[in-house]
């Protein structure tokens, strides 16, 4: 896994990878299930999954002879949110407001 925004945005640059992330939002999927949703070859989808994994946007686990992939949604949200907060004036204002607001124990943030 990497920590660079460049890797994340490079991973998001391809429509197939964005579709894979959308497909994974509902939960874990086997590599074969993911590949079956596309006209591309299995090795091509495997390469896309590798790019997403290297960017830290998906995780994989083995279950017998299957590889199961899951979305790392919080990494995606934090990375995109951090980027937006540096370039979008509204996000900059919201970030400053959040800094001044006392943290509420157990509250869930609604950040992008």
What is the topological layout?
Blueprint: H1 5-12, H2 15-24, E1 29-30, H3 31-36, H4 42-54, E2 58-63, E3 66-71, H5 73-87, H6 89-100
Antiparallel strand pairs: 1-3, 2-3
Helix pairs in contact: 1-4, 5-6
GO molecular function: DNA binding; DNA-binding transcription factor activity
Keywords: DNA-binding, Transcription, Transcription regulation
Pfam families: HTH_20
Can you walk me through this structure?
The protein has a domain at 5-72: Arc Repressor Mutant, subunit A (Orthogonal Bundle). By secondary structure, it is of the alpha+beta class. Strands 1-3-2 form a 3-stranded antiparallel beta sheet. The chain contains 6 helices and 3 strands.
In a nutshell, what does this entry contain?
The protein has 112 residues and is α+β, with helices and mostly antiparallel strands.
